[in-house]
Amino acid sequence: MPEGHSVHRIARQFDRNIVGRSVAASSPQGRFAEGASVIDGREAVEVRAVGKQMFLRFDPDVWLRVHLGMYGAWDFSGEVAVDATIAAANGRMGQTNQRGTVLGEPILDAAGENSLTSIGAPRRARVRMSEQTTGLEEQSEWPPPVVGAVRLRLLTETTCADLRGPTACQLQTPDEVVATIAKLGPDPLVDDVAEGEERFVATVRRKPTAIGLLLMDQAVVSGIGNVYRAEILFRARQNPHTPGRDVPEETVRAMWRDWVRLLAIGVETGQMMTMDDLDPEAYRRAMAHRDDRHWVYHRAGLPCRVCGTTVLVEEAAGRKLYWCPNCQA
Q1: Residues 58 and 149 in one domain
Q2: Where does a domain end: 154, 178, 202?
Q3: What's the pLDDT at 108?
Q4: In b/e form, how buried is each residue of 316-327, taking b as 16+ CB within 10 angstroms?
Q5: Which segments cross the bilayer (predicted)?
Q6: pLDDT at 129
Q7: Contact assessment for residue 186 and residue 215, using Cβ atoms and an 8 Å cutoff
Q8: Do 235 and 132 reside in the same domain of the chain?
Q9: Is the dihedral of CA 105, 9, 24, 36 positive or negative?
Q10: What is the number of other CB atoms lying within 10 angstroms of the CB of residue 246?
């Protein structure tokens, strides 16, 4: 499932390429034909990302709500103006990252997690960044042909955004948008960070639910998915089965602050980088390969990177939970 960093990156792409332009909207798949007809020809005037949901406002006050869910993704093609921060974090401007690692060349994930043109669930996209490319593949025709089941196509004179496989794609009134957002937990990139911390701590500390489930509850905190859940718990050395109300307050606060930091890194790099203090070569490997990027996620049966104990995996509310029974005892 695309996690919070991906949705914020998507919003940046929309802000750069769609907002301020009139949009031709269609539903090639047909499942959003009525909604597409309402926004067709209107100007996109504002975009917001909150947790795993994006809200795009069309003139004068019609909102498109998109929740990618498990399998959704946006594919961008045509002339795609890349956010400067995102481009730099992918090595295209040769900057030094916050850990002191110099990125002189693009470091691109073969699985496409940090793709600048296809953001969401991993997929083999028609147009995307990959290890073999340093830019967008040439378009043979415009508008580009529809490939696969496209729920919604938004087309400007120069840029195309195709939505595939979302859990939710609907139009909302301003009041409905406010009500939707009100049900979500704090998002470090939207809410005041200090106020968000207090909300998060207060909610967790009164819940009998296991902390491993609370971190995935979007009403408790916005944007955390399976990867960030496992990694935040490990970094806090917190047993995922402990009821929220029994987790020490200082640990709950530390997890919030860790989420603030990891989310910012995810937005900047396009990757869920959760390991710290890597030397330049290790950092480059981690950016290029998911297996070198995480402490416990997707490492079931392998030795813990810290203590050597076998990493466990179990089902938790229908999702896989990875953890070290020694470090997180």
Answers
A1: yes
A2: 178
A3: 55
A4: beebebbbbeeb
A5: none
A6: 26
A7: no
A8: no
A9: positive
A10: 12
Spans of the chain, pLDDT less than 70: 1, 82-140
Q: What is the maximal distance between C-alpha atoms in the chain? A: 59
Among 127, 150, 178, where does a domain finish?
Answer: 178
Closest by CA position to 162, among listed 119, 124, 133: 119
d(CA 223, CA 216): 8
Distance of alpha carbon 294 from the chain centroid: 16
Q: Residue 128: give the domain boundaries.
A: 4-178
Q: How many domains does the chain have?
A: 2
Question: Are 290 and 296 a contacting pair, CB within 8 Å?
Answer: no
The dihedral built from the CA positions of residue 168, 173, 174 and 175, taken in this order, carries a sign that is: negative
* Cβ atoms of 65 and 180 closer than 8 Å: yes
Closest by CA to 18, choosing from 120, 125, 161, 147, is 161
Answer yes or no: do 174 and 192 share one domain: no
Is 329 domain-assigned?
A: no
Task: Spell out where the chain has E strands.
Answer: 24-26, 44-50, 53-58, 62-67, 73-78, 118-120, 150-155, 159-164, 168-172, 312-316, 319-323
Residue 49's Cβ-side half-sphere holds a number of Cα atoms within 13 Å equal to 22
197 and 256 assigned to the same domain: yes
Pick from 133, 164, 250: which is nearest to 201 by CA? 250
What's the confidence (pLDDT) of residue 270?
Answer: 86
Contacts of 98 (CB under 8 A, 6+ apart): 265
- Alpha carbons within 13 angstroms on the beta-carbon side of residue 257 total 8
Q: Which residue has the tokens 């029974």?
A: 325
Return the pLDDT at 38.
98
The residues facing 25 across adjacent strands are: 154
User: Before 208, cis peptide (omega within 30)?
Assistant: no
